[in-house]
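Troubleshooting entry. Yesterday's outputs looked truncated, so today I'm pasting the complete records for two proteins to confirm everything comes through intact. If either block looks cut off, that's the bug. Protein one:
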Amino acid sequence: MTRSRIRFADPRSLVLATIATMMTLALLCSQSIRYGHADAPIAATADGVQPVAVGETAPRFVVQTVEGDNVDFDPRKLERPAILITFRGGWCPYCNVHLSELRHVLPEIGDMDIDVLFLSGDRPDQLYSSLRMDTKEDIEGLDYTILSDANANAAIALGIAFNSDATLKRRKERGHDVEGSSMAKRGVLPVPAVFAIDANGIVTYAHVVPDYKVRLPADELLDVAKSLAGS
């Protein structure tokens, strides 16, 4: 009777295979961090961003409060619908105007049990101090939740991050404080955007316009909120 032989794998081959697997996993993880939403790379310009689309699950990301505490936005654990409004920072005049305008509808949206989160490219300690004085006066006493995305985690995850080298250079030449902003930390800026996300974590509305001068009007945001509340 012929005896079958059991072949044992060469230990060196097992080690090499394990190392190769670990390197592959590390590469995949680094790409997911670097590329964010749907493997879309950080765009060279605002026109090239690839934002998360309506019907897709919103991405998970971490931002910071004004005190520097982490806020984990996890679409799988939402207690109620949310609206995300991204802006470049308090240094941006168009962002200030938009913040001031939205004060007219924010209380009504809050009454619909919808969380409205403003995501700024400024570092935590500059979230409010960098805003114009008249903007701060406009939003004083209102339930404005402004969070820091200076690490660009949200912008990258949402697919709205683009290279900010040109803007960073201009602001440095003007003597502006940019250290700690998403421009200096990650070399990116977010395209100003609005995303509506239902309680199941699904994106139901997205307003992403590469031209930073174009913002969603307050009355249209209110319509978005009404639709979200009824979904």
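Protein two, checking that the full record survives here as well:
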Amino acid sequence: MKETLLAVDPSLRGTGYALLERENGKIRCLHFGVIKNPPRLTVSGCLVAIHEQLGDVIVRFSPEVMAIESVIYVQSFPTAITLGSARGAALLAAAQKGLPIHEYAPRRVKQAVVGNGAAQKSQVAFMIRALLGLTVTPPPDAADAMAIGLTHFQSADAAVRRRVPLDRV
């Protein structure tokens, strides 16, 4: 059975995304990218760009599910609001297309891919390249999205083994 997943690492200026496909236990990356919003673009303009571009990716690749990084702890209230807004734009794009959405904490993602919940972005990118057999090291934001996708597949496998609904893993 073939399963296609959209994984998203939301950020106002650099939202990473990846389309991963799993078939017969093998995972491959179909497409990845970063939605780069220039500094001169307003916050609202960035949110529209994230929403529209992810919507286009969903239409183009028809994933069955979306995995996204959950809310993270930040020391700055304005930063938290900004990240939450970017997440909201991504979540809305998926929800409008009827995709089930699964969220994963950043530490859990790093633990799943690198084996260390405090891994650096460069370590995540290196491991993603190795795990997916990529010929190039993806940009950090796209690598983080791929790591979120791999975490989702691992969680789904664990849920099947334990016969637990995925939203309870």
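Both blocks look complete. Sanity check on protein two: Helices lie at 43-61, 77-96, 106-114, 121-132, 140-162.
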